[in-house]
């Protein structure tokens, strides 16, 4: 399985990063076997122009939603640069990333969100910040994003349902966002809440759902400021499609996909651990941590392997699942001494 | 009503034909036709049609009583066999396309994943029904045939549990199918006593067919 790019601390500038990529390519060329050849093929797909500078992956085709990218976001997206975290696995094509979604607010079938979120309007967007922080209140998304330079991070996304994708997100570190609200020393947890808008989100009107809306997720504060935790406002060089969580969502790649909450409307800094939506819905099956862990099965299915999407009927797509989704070097230290079987 | 059987045969073959057409499109380069996860789409499609045919099979008895169309019973066997057929495709595609024939995992699934074991149990119970569906078997088993084929009620319940246990949050579909099955089964109990005596006996006396 292909590994991570080096940590940000190991990289000083983009040229060093480029050299590293060249090294990986060379290593791939020397190594034999299916994994190496897959990694090599993937590498050329990711770095579209290796002879010059590395560029971010951009979707040039049509989008399926009606809302245009807000004018203030366009120049920011144009200036987005490749970030320090990438992978040499091939990125899942835009069509699949944007048309195969778990976003129950827009329906429970994978194809429902792209249909039902077509006309979702997320402009203007207000983010409310509450709790143990010095700068709380309601903020306009445009104002919030102003000081943040955007970068691309190509992360693996491992769903709790045992499928996975590789997604080129555009955004900025969650730590940078959190710092701006100046959480105080009582802030031990961060709680995130999805927009509650039954008019725009038909799933929130369902009568027989086991989910109590609005959707809530949470992180320990040290998890939230980990270098991997990311706020995505786009993918494939474009603004986020609504079915992927427009206008801003969390991306915590070492945890199951449901932790990466979409369409965030509220952030709260708390003393106590918040109860999350899936925990409340079924605490036997979903825990607060939800770290990707091949050794701890979901009660109803195995987590030992996963199917990389898009799948093909004609070739195998099942691969072994890695501890922390392959991000152990960056995050394993957060859980030293913890019983991960119990704190699943 | 000689057209009823051929019509049922044609209609029953439509879903699998559609499925095969989609796969052939996928094979000839239409990558998006079954979405990001074609294997899962195919497994779910055939599972869905297994349930539809099961419900259709169960509805024959009530329909023919209510509307007085005895000929309907002629297609019940075919509907039952379609149920078995789509269940077989469903199971085969699951093992072949989703588990990619990792037998270790198939066995672990059967043992540990309740929704899989329930679904598999339902399938196993379908086998004797399919095997004994011929006229010769009906004659051979006589009264025992009727008792054996009451297994379909157990199978329906197992199928509903299978569906409920693989649902993650929204139970709307499960609730709807449970209501339909409940209605179809309830009819049979009512039919034996109240329904038949009060409503259908007078009707039957006039139409002794």
3D structure, described in words:
The complex is a heterodimer of chains A (344) and B (209). By secondary structure, chain A is of the alpha+beta class. Chain A has one domain: Sulfite Oxidase, Chain A, domain 2 (Alpha-Beta Complex), CATH 3.90.420.10. Chain A is 20% helix and 19% strand. In chain A, strands 1, 4, 5, 8, 9, 10, 12 and 13 form an 8-stranded mixed sheet that branches. Chain A has a 5-stranded mixed sheet with strand order 3-2-11-6-7. Chain A is globular. The two termini of chain A are 24 Å apart. Mean pLDDT of chain A is 87; it is low at 1-52. With 209 residues, chain B is an all-alpha fold. In chain B, 82% of the residues lie in helices and 0% in strands. Chain B is built from 9 helices and no strands. Chain B has helices at 4-27, 38-67, 73-98, 103-112, 114-131, 135-141, 143-149, 151-165, 172-206. The A-B interface holds A 92, 95-96, 99-100, 104, 108, 110-111, 161, 163, 165, 203, 206-211, 281, 297, 300-302, 304-305, 307, 309-314, 316-318 and B 23, 26-27, 31-32, 35-40, 42, 97-100, 102, 105, 108-109, 112-115, 165-166, 168-172, 174-175.
List the helices and strands and how they pair.
The complex is a heterodimer of chains A (344) and B (209).
Chain A: H1 14-30, H2 34-46, H3 74-78, E1 81-82, H4 94-97, H5 112-116, E2 126-131, E3 137-140, H6 141-145, E4 151-158, E5 163-173, H7 174-180, E6 189-194, E7 216-220, H8 221-224, E8 230-235, E9 238-239, E10 249-251, E11 264-270, H9 277-281, E12 305-308, E13 318-320, H10 328-331
Parallel strand pairs in A: 1-4, 2-11, 5-12
Antiparallel strand pairs in A: 2-3, 4-5, 5-8, 6-7, 6-11, 8-9, 8-10, 12-13
Chain B: H1 4-27, H2 38-67, H3 73-98, H4 103-112, H5 114-131, H6 135-141, H7 143-149, H8 151-165, H9 172-206
In short:
Helix content of chain A is 20%, strand content 19%. With 344 residues, chain A is an alpha+beta fold.
Helix proportion range of chain B:
over 70%
Radius of gyration of chain A: 19 Å
Regarding quaternary structure, how should these chains be classified?
A: heterodimer
Mean pLDDT of chain A: 87
- Tell me the overall shape of chain B: globular
CATH superfamily of chain A: Oxidoreductase, molybdopterin-binding domain
Number of strands of chain A: 13
The share of residues in extended strands of chain A comes to 15-25%
Q: N- to C-terminal separation of chain B?
A: 15 Å
Which CATH class of chain A applies here?
A: Alpha Beta
The major pleated sheet of chain B works out as: none
Strand percentage of chain B = under 5%
User: What helical percentage do the residues of chain A reach?
Assistant: 10-25%
């Amino acid at each position: 399985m292909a590994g991570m790019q080096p940590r940000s601390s190991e990289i000083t500038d983009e040229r060093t990063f480029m050299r590293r990529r060249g090294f990986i390519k060379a290593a791939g060329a020397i190594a034999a076997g299916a994994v190496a050849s897959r990694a090599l093929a993937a590498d050329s797909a990711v770095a579209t122009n290796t002879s010059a500078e590395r560029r971010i992956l951009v979707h040039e085709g049509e989008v399926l939603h009606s809302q245009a990218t807000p004018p203030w976001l366009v120049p920011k997206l144009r200036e987005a640069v490749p970030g320090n975290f990438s992978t040499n696995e091939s990125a899942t094509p835009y069509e699949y990333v944007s048309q195969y979604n778990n976003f129950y607010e827009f329906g429970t079938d994978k194809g429902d969100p792209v249909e039902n979120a077509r006309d979702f309007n997320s402009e203007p967007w207000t983010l409310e910040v509450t709790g143990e922080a010095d700068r709380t209140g309601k903020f306009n998304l445009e104002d919030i994003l102003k000081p943040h330079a955007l970068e691309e991070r190509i992360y693996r996304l491992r769903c709790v349902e045992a499928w996975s994708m590789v997604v080129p997100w555009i955004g900025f570190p969650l730590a940078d966002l959190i710092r701006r609200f100046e959480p105080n020393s009582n802030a031990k947890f961060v709680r995130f809440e999805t927009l509650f808008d039954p008019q725009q989100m038909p799933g929130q009107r369902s009568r027989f759902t086991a989910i109590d809306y609005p959707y809530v997720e949470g992180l320990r504060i040290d998890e939230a400021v980990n270098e991997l935790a990311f706020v995505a406002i786009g993918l494939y060089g474009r603004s986020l499609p609504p079915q992927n969580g427009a206008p801003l969502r969390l991306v915590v790649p070492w945890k199951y996909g449901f932790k990466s909450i979409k369409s965030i409307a509220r952030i709260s800094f708390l003393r106590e651990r918040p109860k999350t939506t899936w925990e409340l819905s079924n605490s036997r099956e979903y825990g607060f941590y939800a770290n990707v862990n091949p050794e701890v099965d979901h009660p109803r299915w195995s987590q030992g392997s996963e199917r990389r999407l898009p799948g093909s009927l004609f070739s195998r797509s099942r691969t072994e699942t890695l501890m922390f989704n392959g991000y152990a070097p960056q995050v394993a230290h957060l859980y030293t001494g913890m019983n991960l079987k119990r704190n699943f | 009503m000689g057209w009823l059987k051929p019509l049922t045969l044609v209609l029953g073959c439509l879903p699998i034909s559609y499925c095969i057409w989609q796969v052939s499109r996928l094979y000839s380069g239409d990558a998006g036709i079954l979405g990001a996860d074609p294997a899962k789409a195919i497994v779910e499609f055939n599972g869905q049609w297994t349930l539809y045919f099961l419900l259709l099979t169960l509805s024959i008895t009530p329909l023919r009583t209510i509307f007085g169309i005895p000929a309907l019973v002629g297609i019940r066997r075919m509907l039952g066999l379609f149920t078995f057929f789509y269940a077989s495709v469903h199971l085969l595609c699951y093992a072949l396309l989703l588990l990619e024939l990792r037998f270790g995992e198939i066995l672990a699934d059967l043992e540990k994943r309740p929704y899989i074991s329930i679904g598999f149990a339902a399938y196993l119970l379908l086998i004797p029904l399919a095997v004994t569906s011929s006229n010769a078997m009906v004659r051979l088993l006589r009264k025992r045939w009727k008792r054996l084929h009451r297994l379909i009620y157990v199978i329906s319940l197992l199928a509903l549990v299978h569906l409920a246990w693989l649902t993650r949050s929204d139970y709307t579909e499960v609730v709807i199918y449970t209501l339909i099955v409940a209605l179809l089964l309830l009819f049979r109990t009512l039919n034996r006593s109240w329904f038949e005596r009060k409503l259908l006996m007078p009707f039957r006396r006039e139409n002794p067919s």
